[in-house]
Recover the amino acids of this structure.
């Protein structure tokens, strides 16, 4: 990078795109720019405090850690200054000329994903520094980095095509952002206007904010206070501050403990799922503090990954201040801390689910994916997570959910397993051949209908000491059911029929036997346990270019079914048609089992069957 004084730089294309949206959108909440800049100032101060506490030598070491805001109505400017870490020349280019940080990326992604009015999402994402161009015609960032021998610089831009960086002698450590307002936004240069905004959005900034010389915020660490000293409004304000959020929190858990670890934590569940389109993993949102000092705003490895939707603070006196982000992940103490909070939070959710099931159902509708992800990835908390699962079942109405605990209360005497079936929908399960046997015996079956549920079935082997068992497994020992009424093939005929089917289908099946489970369907295909694999896993194997072994099923036939009885006759009267239909029966059974990967041969056979029917 050259050191000539004035040096024009062009914005990265994405920044230009973003600025274009920011400047031209008919967004009404332009005031958020102030919150964004104050929160940047606060972050810069947190980082500086951390450097000081860990013994780094910093420029202008005696400057007080505070944010000073000045307004000038005549000049139409508002200036936000902090004594934080400041920026070097390279950092200016990196931070204020490109897009690297998650918030803005998510914002752009959401626009690509078709979020309609840009204005509505600006607020939600907080596009950070660039939001200043919603109100500014010119912005100057005077800055000097905390690092020894750093340059004093001034970054200037009108937010259109680019910016320049010049020397700025006299600037002390930190950043001073001078905003020259556009005429129509001159109001932000009025003191009362700024004061109102700061009170509303920045009350919890942990450093003093001085507006034209007057102190505006009360600095307090809410999480260190007693629960009964904090009002709902304060909690909600604090949530909005720490999560950069605009919504009201859905749940909050304020938890203080003295032993075995000193922990003060305050965590929130947001109103909305931060990964609504299921794409892009958001960063962890619970910050780690040690005695009010921020260690890491997005600590990886503190909480399990599936808890990344939580927002808030965990503060512990027991952490060493100089713990680095790298050593943090390996620290037994940090893990212990995360574990305590995770357990506490799981218990809290379970309590909430019981005390206000409607509210919990709402939460579950938005956040169940995280819980299910936890079941698969977090063995340590699997059982507690499983308690939070909710499913439809053969004993619930459509749309009504039940828990595994409730399932257990409805178990039949002597039933020592939990049955489940997996298919894309409730109706697919109820119209398939697998449920009949359970219905006639009064056994409840849980419905796994989401793609992720397939992984649950393979991760969650048991719950409360009872195995989870697939109701379409071939080796189930079901209690006897009452003998159904109506005509049936005799035992000898049934056996002869099975043998004929077996010969006709040859290698296509493992065996053909008389079913004890069927009442309404003619046949059912059952997979041996070791070949069990859902459609998701098969698809995954395929993308890995590994062939899933062609499953050989056990075909069970229903000797009472009209189709089977007719087919038994047709073996000798119309042998060709009978053979065709035997193959077709196997294919439809495989179809119900979700095992038909290539429908072509099935389609061809259907055409032949149709032709035969018209003979
Ligand atoms: P975000 O704060 O979400 O990272 P911003 O666009 O608000 O995104 O800021 C981009 C980056 O610029 C910040 O991450 C920070 O590194 C730097 N920055 C912004 N304001 C300041 C400031 N007052 N002091 C030091 N660095 C700053």
């Amino acid at each position: 990078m050259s050191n000539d004084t004035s040096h024009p730089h062009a914005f990265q294309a994405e920044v230009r795109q973003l600025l274009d949206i920011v400047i031209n959108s008919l967004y009404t909440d332009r005031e958020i720019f102030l919150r964004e800049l104050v929160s940047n100032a606060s972050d810069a101060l947190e980082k500086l405090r951390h450097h000081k506490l860990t013994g780094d030598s910093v420029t202008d070491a005696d400057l007080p850690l505070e944010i000073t805001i000045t307004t000038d109505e005549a000049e139409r400017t508002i200036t936000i200054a902090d004594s934080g870490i400041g920026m070097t020349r390279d950092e200016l280019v990196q931070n204020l000329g490109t897009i690297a940080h998650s918030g803005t990326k998510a914002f752009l992604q959401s626009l690509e994903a078709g979020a309609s009015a840009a204005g509505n999402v600006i607020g939600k994402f907080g596009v950070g520094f660039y939001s200043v161009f919603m109100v500014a015609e010119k912005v100057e960032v005077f800055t000097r980095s905390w690092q020894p021998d750093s340059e004093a610089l001034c970054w200037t831009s009108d937010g259109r095509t680019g910016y320049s960086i010049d020397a700025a002698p006299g600037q002390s450590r930190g950043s001073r952002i001078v905003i020259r307002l556009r005429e129509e936004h001159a109001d932000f240069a009025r003191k009362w206007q700024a004061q109102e905004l700061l009170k509303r959005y920045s009350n919890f900034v942990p450093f003093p904010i001085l507006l034209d010389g007057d102190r505006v915020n009360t600095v307090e660490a809410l999480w260190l206070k007693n629960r009964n000293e904090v009002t709902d409004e304060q909690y909600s304000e604090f949530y909005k501050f720490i999560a950069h959020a605009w919504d009201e929190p859905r749940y909050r858990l304020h938890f203080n403990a003295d032993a075995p670890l000193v922990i003060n934590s305050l965590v929130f569940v947001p109103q909305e799922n931060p990964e609504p389109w299921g794409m892009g993993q958001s960063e962890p949102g619970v910050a780690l503090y040690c005695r009010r000092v921020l260690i890491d705003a997005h600590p990886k490895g503190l909480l399990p990954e599936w808890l990344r939707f939580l927002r808030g603070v965990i503060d512990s006196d027991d952490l060493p201040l100089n713990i680095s982000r790298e050593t943090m992940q390996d620290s037994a103490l940090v893990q212990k801390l995360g574990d305590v909070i995770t357990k506490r939070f799981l218990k809290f959710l379970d309590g909430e689910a019981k005390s206000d099931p409607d509210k919990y159902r709402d939460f579950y509708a938005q956040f169940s994916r995280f819980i299910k992800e936890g079941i698969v990835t977090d063995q340590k908390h699997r059982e507690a997570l499983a308690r939070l699962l909710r499913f439809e079942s053969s004993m619930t109405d459509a749309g009504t959910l039940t828990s595994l605990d409730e399932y257990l209360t409805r178990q039949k005497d002597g039933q020592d397993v939990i049955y489940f079936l997996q298919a894309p929908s409730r109706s697919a399960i109820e119209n398939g051949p697998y449920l009949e046997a359970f219905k006639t015996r009064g056994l409840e079956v849980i419905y796994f209908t989401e793609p992720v549920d397939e992984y649950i079935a393979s991760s969650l082997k048991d719950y409360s000491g009872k195995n989870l068992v697939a109701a379409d497994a071939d080796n189930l020992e079901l209690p006897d059911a009452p003998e159904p009424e109506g005509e049936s093939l005799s035992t000898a005929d049934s056996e002869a029929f099975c043998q004929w089917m077996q010969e006709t289908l040859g290698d296509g099946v493992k065996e053909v036997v008389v079913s004890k489970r069927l009442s309404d369907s003619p046949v059912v295909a059952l997979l041996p346990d070791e070949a069990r694999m859902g459609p998701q896993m098969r698809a995954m194997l395929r993308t890995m270019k590994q062939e899933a072994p062609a499953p050989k099923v056990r075909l069970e036939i229903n000797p009472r079914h009209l189709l089977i009885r007719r087919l038994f006759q047709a073996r000798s009267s119309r042998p060709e048609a009978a053979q065709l239909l035997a193959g077709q029966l196997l294919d439809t059974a495989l179809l119900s089992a979700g095992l038909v990967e290539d429908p072509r041969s099935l389609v061809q056979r259907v055409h032949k069957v149709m032709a035969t029917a018209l003979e």
